[in-house]
Design a protein that fits this description.
There is one protein chain. The radius of gyration is 19 Å and the shape is globular. It has a 6-stranded antiparallel beta sheet, covered by helices on one side. It has one domain (9-169). The chain has 5 helices and 8 strands; from the N terminus they run ααβαββββαβββα. It has helices at residues 9-12, 39-44, 64-72, 116-123, 163-169; strands at residues 50-56, 77-81, 87-91, 102-104, 111-113, 129-138, 143-151, 156-160.
């Protein structure tokens, strides 16, 4: 790896161990009414459950075998491969739990945090970009969309569907109220 790269502990583990990821529930952030989606309302059933689809674009990796082994340790992650050798990730979690963000250390059972885009960036070939996308909703109450682009070494760009509110304010006089797209 280059001088600017880093290594996540998951990539240093013995790849023969089975990993058991622990997932956390993710709430949408930014752009939606802060008082509309509270943990209490979601848990009480006042808001439809969050449903989402998670996937990446296709990108080239430097060590396909090790990449597939590491991704195989994360529950719910499928690696798709095209004929040209490029891979994409698909997360089968439709219950809103999202991309894996934790796994359990097999040696002592300690839950450890991970950042999947950071791990993937360590495998990216030069001049490749991995784009992680999430598109979901709380029924018809609120639409959610996020995308994160990352390159080898960890430099990234993040956008949210809610960025449109900032862009929309550029179209109208200051002080104009733009309502959120929510129920």
């Amino acid at each position: 790896m280059g001088a600017n790269s880093f290594s996540h502990p998951l990539n240093q583990l013995d790849l023969c161990y089975e990993k058991t990821p622990v997932r956390r529930y993710h709430l949408p952030t930014g752009g939606v009414s802060d008082n509309l989606f509270t943990q209490e309302k979601i848990m009480s059933g006042n808001v439809a459950p969050y449903r989402a689809i998670y996937r990446t674009n296709y990108f080239a990796v430097v060590d396909l075998t090790k990449f597939c082994k590491v991704m195989g340790m994360l529950s719910g992650i499928s690696v798709k491969q095209r004929a040209d050798g490029k891979v994409a990730l698909v997360c089968s979690s439709l219950n809103g739990s999202g991309w894996p963000d934790r796994y359990v250390d097999p040696d002592d059972g300690t839950p450890l945090e991970l950042n999947l885009p950071d791990i993937v960036s360590e495998f990216l070939a030069d001049n490749q970009v991995a784009i992680f996308m999430e598109v979901g909703s709380f029924g018809t109450h609120c639409l959610v969309g996020f995308a994160e682009a990352i390159i080898r070494g960890g430099e990234r760009r993040v956008v949210s569907i809610n960025d449109i509110y900032t862009r929309a304010m550029e179209l109208v006089p200051p002080g104009t109220v733009i309502t959120n797209v929510d129920h």
